[in-house]
Amino acid sequence: MTDIAQRSPQVFAPALTPFNADLSVNSEAFIGFCRWLVSQGAGLAVFGTNSEANSLALEEKIALLERLAEAGIPADRMIPGTGLCALPEAIALTRAAVALGCAGTLTLPPFYFKPASDDGLFAYYAQIIEAVGSDRLKLYLYHIPQFTGVPITCALIERLITAYPKTVVGIKDSSGNWENTERMLREFPGFEVYPASEALLEKALPLGAAGCISATANVQPNTIARALKAWGTPEFDALQAELKVVRGIFQAKPMIPALKHVVAKAFGDAGWDHVRPPLVAADASWAEGLMAELRDARFDMGAGQ
Q1: Is 194 a catalytic residue?
Q2: CB count in 10 Å sphere of residue 60
Q3: Longest alpha-carbon distance in the chain
Q4: 49-105 pLDDT, tens per residue?
Q5: CA distance 283 to 267
Q6: pLDDT tens digit string along 3-55?
Q7: Does residue 30 fall inside a structural domain?
Q8: What strand order describes the sheet that includes 139-143?
Q9: Which of 125, 140, 142, 194 is catalytic?
Q10: Are the CB atoms for 8 and 212 separated by under 8 Å?
Q11: How many domains is the chain built from?
Q12: Catalytic option among 172, 253, 260, 265
């Protein structure tokens, strides 16, 4: 496992995926956006929840990873989401990520067959690890039970890191349950625990959190990165307060359409409003209010035109 004391906390953005009007992936806009996120100090958790990952085909994901690598986006700044219900597809996507030199993979549990036992989930992760068969694989678990209905328990974490201590190195906790995040931080020192919200940094960092993997890192990556660097200084408190306000505004809206709408405005590209069904694009009934709230908060994405 990574010695957290040896490195600084990081922010990763589950990078939004832009679509054309026909709902095909706009790979050029995707590359440009990922390049911007990296320039702002964020790593890339591409194919995360807010990337609309489960609306993307396996072939699309592999092609986008390859396009990012060809464009010179540093692979060591990427931890793509590779968890899929079909085990062969999860293995194939994980292999592709490892082959490209990605820093790790963020791997959802299979979520269709419920209830899923810890034995079954252990077997799923073990099959991926054994099939990929590379000591370069660094696997991050992804706990988001409100979407998957399949929790990753502390007992399962213990079992996985005992069996694969150099491979299963961390977790993103998107449960929204601080008590759960705190328990992981306390029970597994040296295990990289990433809360899913920058609003939790003031509580998580003192316990050794590895940073955050946050939806709103898509729109305030630089402020989060600055806050992480300022941890332990008076500047952190001011930045944390700013981060909480913006996070709260987005959390009160349909998150993915809201993020895409703000990115569309910031980059002057209305195409960013496109989402794949069953999601629905930002609606004027709330989108105008969202922009007004952000203006009142003096929010500036800093993307330029």
Answers
A1: no
A2: 15
A3: 52
A4: 999 999 999 999 999 999 999 999 999 999 999 999 999 999 999 999 999 999 999
A5: 19
A6: 433 468 999 999 999 999 999 999 999 999 999 999 999 999 999 999 999 99
A7: yes
A8: 105-107, 139-143, 168-173, 192-195
A9: 142
A10: no
A11: 1
A12: 172
Per the annotation, does 213 bind a ligand? Answer: yes
Please measure the distance between the N-terminal and C-terminal CA atoms of the chain and give it in whole angstroms: 42
Q: What is the three-state SS of 206-251?
A: HHCCCEEECHHHHCCHHHHHHHHHCCCCHHHHHHHHHHHHHHHHHH
Active site residue 140: no
CB within 8 Å of 38: residues ≥ 6 apart: 44, 73, 74, 77
Taking only the tens place, the pLDDT of each residue in 135-187 is 999 999 999 999 999 999 999 999 999 999 999 999 999 999 999 999 999 99
Tell me the CATH number at 198. Answer: 3.20.20.70
Give residue 111's domain range. Answer: 4-221
> What phi, psi does 155 have (nearest 5°)?
-65, -40
DSSP state of 108: P
Which phi and psi angles does 83 have, rounded to 5°? -80, 125
Confidence of residue 304 (pLDDT cuts 50, 70, 90): low
Read off the amino acid at residue 211: G
State which amino acid sits at residue 81: G
| Residue 134 domain flag | yes
Residue 72 lies in a domain: yes
Whether 282 is covered by a domain: the verdict is no
Q: Among positive and negative, which fits the CA dihedral 301, 15, 247, 103?
A: negative
Residue in 85, 87, 96, 33 with CA at minimum distance from that of residue 61: 96
